[in-house]
Write a structure and sequence with these properties.
single chain, mainly alpha
Length: 213
């Protein structure tokens, strides 16, 4: 009882959302390798066999989870399209947003098979199409906040920003313990909070956007 296949579009969307929520919860407490469609189904109202009506493989679940995180990120950048702010304010806002997306940072830090174009063209195409709104929003934000930057500088920033984001999870979590240890034994004169390191990195990345062509 209760584990019935969705029959309407609304039910289908609700079931998929339930699966994504379960996958997200497990991903933050388990390794990606140990998660399966079966373990995800155990955390939902969907039976193990029935979960295949919604997703044919684990990778498809995580593609949609990444897409969902990007959508939320894009929505949170909305205020940056409403008024101009200083470089410092821009970098602080972006840092705050990124810091609130731990699942996305962790996903971007993994060498998932979905990033391999030879793995599944349809999956990669689905991903590329669904994150276009986010990419367009990010481009608009950069163009709006840095109107004097040239197209080359904006493009380079977007590329470097993407690479930078893929390293933030390791900086935020994996580097925290050795930094805490260094702080405890006072082996360094000054050890800034990890979030401040992220902010400083964005300041340096965005510096090129302030120079006019």
């Amino acid at each position: 009882m209760g584990k019935i296949r969705a029959r309407t579009d609304e039910e289908l969307a609700a079931r998929k959302q339930e699966i994504l929520a379960a996958a997200k919860e497990q991903f933050m407490t388990m390794s990606y390798e140990s998660i399966t469609l079966a373990t995800i189904a155990e955390k939902t109202s969907i039976s193990r066999p029935s979960i295949y009506h919604y997703y044919d493989k684990k990778e498809s679940v995580f593609v949609d989870l990444i897409i969902q995180e990007y959508r939320e990120w894009g929505e949170q950048m909305g205020p940056l399209l409403e008024r101009r702010c200083s470089q410092e304010q821009f970098c602080q806002t972006m840092t705050d947003i990124l810091w609130g997306h731990e699942p996305l940072l962790k996903l971007l830090s993994l060498h998932l098979p979905i990033w391999d174009p030879s793995y599944d063209d349809s999956m990669l195409g689905h991903f590329a199409n669904e994150i276009l709104p986010f990419q367009d929003t990010l481009k608009e934000v950069v163009a709006f906040q840095f109107p004097d930057a040239g197209s080359k500088e904006r493009t380079m920033f977007l590329i470097q920003f993407s690479v930078y984001c893929s390293s933030l999870y390791e900086t935020k979590y994996l580097a925290q313990k050795p930094m805490d240890a260094a702080r405890k034994i006072r082996s360094l004169d000054f050890i800034p909070p990890v979030k401040e390191i992220c902010y400083d990195g964005l300041i340096k990345l965005s510096a090129s956007l302030l120079s006019k062509e």
